[in-house]
Amino acid sequence: MSAARTIDVSEVGLRDGxxxxxxxxxxxxxxxxxxxxxxxxxxxxxxxxxxHPKVIPQLADAETVAAGIKRExxxxxxxxxxxxxGAERAIKAGIDDLKAGVAVSDSFNRLNVRMTxxxxxxATDEIAAATKGTQxxxxxxxxxxxxxxxxxxxSRDRMxxxxxxxxxxxxxxxxxxxxTGVANPDRIRRTIEDLNKHFPDATLGLHLxxxxxxxxxxxxxxxxxxxxxxxxxxxxxxxxxxxxxxxxNICTEDFVHMAHEMGxxxxxxxxxxxxxARMAQEMLGRTLPxxxxxxGKASELHAMDAQRVKVD
Amino acid sequence: MSAARTIDVSEVGLRDGxxxxxxxxxxxxxxxxxxxxxxxxxxxxxxxxxxHPKVIPQLADAETVAAGIKRExxxxxxxxxxxxxGAERAIKAGIDDLKAGVAVSDSFNRLNVRMTxxxxxxATDEIAAATKGTQxxxxxxxxxxxxxxxxxxxSRDRMxxxxxxxxxxxxxxxxxxxxTGVANPDRIRRTIEDLNKHFPDATLGLHLxxxxxxxxxxxxxxxxxxxxxxxxxxxxxxxxxxxxxxxxNICTEDFVHMAHEMGxxxxxxxxxxxxxARMAQEMLGRTLPxxxxxxGKASELHAMDAQRVKVD
Lengths: 312, 312
Fold this sequence. Notes:
The structure is a homodimer. Chain A is an alpha/beta fold. Chain A is built from 13 helices and eight strands. Chain A has helices at residues 13-17, 27-37, 62-68, 84-92, 106-113, 117-131, 156-168, 185-198, 215-224, 252-261, 270-284, 292-295, 304-307; strands at 8-11, 44-49, 76-80, 97-103, 137-143, 174-177, 204-207, 229-232.
């Protein structure tokens, strides 16, 4: 399979990023950043999560954020929901895409959301049931899809059962998440080949972390396998609280930059996205790992005199 | 062409890295780091450069470094040489591999070494002549092989002429350098395909920078094209003084980690290499960009209790 010429990028920094930041960002600042992102050409933005406020205090303002944003036509606004209660709240808040994420690894799922994988899958059934007859839809997330820091290799059979379940609920996209950044390009390819073989009608996406510096290389492996749906965090912010020495998702604008350089269309205004990444950086008050916002695009030509460095 | 199962990694941090660091590292510290690297299984280590000391003061101790290291049998010690004078010094110092680098882009080459590409190629002829009848050999470097920050696309004809020249001098490896980090996986593939077609007997290598976060993805594209020779800097240190807002080479241990995770043999003891990266970090007194030295290897399993985070 060859690389798609048009891909779909989903921004998850406001949820996967902010949920582990120590800094509590006021709702109005989140809203301002989401409104900026809505004008970049992104078609999917994960704006918050509907977990219990005690579990993820950084996202305790979920309803306020959802009510405060200016919804851009054509943009789908998503949120992470761990259970039926979260689904009800998200639906009431008018969230388009409810992200239901369960880890293939039992150990990881228990640490992450205090449910076994089996219990998590039951919660997904309840989330799916909650969306029935509403404008909201369930989007699938299979966490630790490429390995677990506690268990190592994950069970392919378990992953297949999760795929079956999500497809049974008509999940329009199923994101395979490298939650703790243990994937490598080979494992990405083998996993996608396996799932393509067993579930030819499924639409797969990749949710990658850059924990070991392989995030963008893993995304390239996914592109080469024909994957069209990718998630990232602007500036590379984010991470996972239970991942050993976790770091963030792949940097959205660095990934979009690579795609554009390769002639792949994202529908995104990269300059506007870089501006949004700088806004996120200011909001958090620290330098984020994104590279293109510092180096500029590869296609930007520089004047020679401006770069002259004294060498003698 | 499919990925090689055995690759050859060359460490260039002591030259490409240190030449732009503001910190002047004493020769004995460089020697200690090189001696540590010599025991990691690396077969190629670029230890210094023989430019005029006024041009690159950080490498003014080239002779002292070359004389001070303990040479490990089977390891080739390399150095960058800009001209005949540098070649004579390097040969006298017992350097195995003389790296002669010329940029395809005239603008870049003039800024970098104050010679046009044509003059640089003449210098390469002189370096090659100097190695005749010695134990030293010429290794080729084509800089700005994937684009120039001042000129944009580089001429393929010019690159072919440089290949012809280097092959005429029996260069055993010709490294294609993405000097300022403007490459993308597609351009890497197209360039390698073109050179493989026109120069089927050449042995190509990749010297990549991570300026825009694509270094490891570009290396993956090279691996996929069957490239077997790669350069990197431990910890990701390094860069280029004339590259606009330059950052370092790809991080050697992060790249080796990826290769090992993909089942590709490098002959390198990754744990020993990570220790060397930590040593480089201490030597420079600042956090280097390498990721695996912070996160640990993907294959390392973690105890669940050690990672428990309070969530309520």
